[in-house]
Amino acid sequence: MGALPVYRWRLAPDGLATRRPLRALGLRPGGQDVAAQVERPRCRRGPLVAYLYRIEQAKPVRPMTPAKWAALAKANAARRLCPECRRDAGYVIPPSLGMCTQCAYPGEQRAA
């Protein structure tokens, strides 16, 4: 395998895209190899690198099945459950607190 072509930021040729633009088109890389990369220079650090894939070789995004929707709903519900008071907080618990704000700051009034 030869070296990948490297392009400067926003100067990649047509027909190549990163994962996000592919997803916006309803596509995924689909197992293809990286075709090229773009580099965005930064001050005092190494450049940011993004990999490019060929649009014509991309495959459609797989649809969500009912089982996947159920698993996603269960995972999101677990992120809302406070481990201290075991209540649904009504929002995703911040990882920095590790509990709902009512348990983290007990002096505040709890909404009924």
Strand order of the largest sheet: 1-4-5-2
The tally of strands reads 6
What's the helical proportion of residues?
10-25%
The total of helices stands at: 3
Description of the molecule:
The chain is an alpha+beta fold and 112 residues long. Helix content is 22%, strand content 23%. The chain contains 3 helices and 6 strands. The strands form 2 sheets. It has a 4-stranded mixed β-sheet. A two-stranded antiparallel ribbon has the order 3-6. A hairpin with a 2-residue loop joins strand 4 and strand 5 (45-54). The longest helix is centred in the middle third of the chain and has 15 residues, at 66-80. It is elongated and about 60 Å long. The chain starts with 5 loop residues before the first strand and ends in an 8-residue tail after the last helix.
